[in-house]
Design a protein that fits this description.
- It is a single chain.
- This protein is α/β, with parallel strands linked by helices.
- The protein has a single domain, classed as Class I glutamine amidotransferase (GATase) domain (Rossmann fold, 3-Layer(aba) Sandwich), CATH 3.40.50.
- The chain has 6 helices and 11 strands.
- Helix 3 packs across helix 4.
């Protein structure tokens, strides 16, 4: 079923490499999705035409300086006011892997008191270097995050990770304060866990990067901006699973579909 009123903008710059998979995921659900180079968005000034915005995975600008840092500062300098208006209007923004890094660097997450001028968190280098594997995630959100409203609380999902800088950290002196805010504001969305749902508690490989409190994904206080390190677009179809050949019968779709489906359902209700 085509959802003609829903139009998704998937941004692209040098180094992004997951835009096509993300586009296909949205189109599988009937939404229109455009892959747009940021230069074109700056030229046309048409961000307001879109229902939602996506920063996809990859290695934007080679991840020089820090992962996502250059793209974050670049887009704030050229589209800062439009981006702020987009958030204020309640339009969703999704950041996947490198996109999550961009949202944190741009102050769009965790955004405890609105968009921050300086990053309040960081996605630092993995404790054990670059990692590419399937991992398990436990859904922690109580309903605030619009991107996981179709995911039951406590459900364990499987998705792949592929990153070298995914270790979520807060400033040491603010860890307790900021973690409490995540829980109080219902901003904690995903934590790394075992396949049985036991928290990783920092253990490798269940926690693949050493993230503080096993954090794999968070949202803003309104639940409309969401960043996660795993790739839902790489866990959309049954045949993307690493063990699909070992099973005689599998569902048509994988767990990643729930993220995109939740967003589409939210946009339909909003319209």
């Amino acid at each position: 079923m085509k959802r003609v009123d829903i139009k998704i903008c998937i941004l692209r710059v040098g180094g992004t490499n997951c835009d096509a998979e993300t586009k296909r995921s949205f189109e599988e659900l009937g939404a229109k999705a455009d892959i747009v180079h940021v230069n074109e968005l700056v030229k046309r000034r048409n961000l307001a035409e879109y229902s939602a915005l996506v920063f996809p995975g990859g290695f934007s600008y080679g991840d020089y300086v820090r992962a996502g840092a250059i793209w974050a500062k670049w887009i704030l300098a050229r589209l800062g006011k439009e981006l702020e208006a987009f958030v204020d209007d309640g339009r969703p923004i999704l950041g996947i892997c490198n996109g999550f890094q961009v949202l944190v660097e741009a102050g769009l997450l965790p955004a405890f008191n609105g968009i921050s001028q300086q990053p309040e968190a960081a996605l630092a280098s993995n404790v054990r270097g670059y990692g590419c594997r399937w991992i398990s995630l436990k859904h922690e959100n109580m309903g605030k995050c619009i991107f996981t409203q179709k995911v039951p609380k406590g459900k364990v999902l499987r998705m792949p990770i592929a990153h070298g800088e995914g270790r979520f950290v807060f400033p040491k002196e603010k860890e307790k304060e900021f973690l409490k805010k995540l829980y109080d504001n219902d901003q904690l969305v995903f934590r790394y866990c075992t396949g049985d749902g036991e928290y990783a508690e920092g253990r490798f490989p269940e926690n693949p990067n050493g993230s503080f409190h096993d954090i794999a994904g968070i949202c803003n206080p309104e639940g409309t901006v969401f960043g996660l390190m795993p790739h839902p677009e790489r866990a959309f179809y049954w045949w993307q699973q690493p063990d699909w050949t070992s099973k005689t019968r599998m569902p048509e779709y994988c767990d990643g579909k729930l993220v995109f489906e939740s967003l589409i359902d939210y946009l339909e209700r909003k319209s």
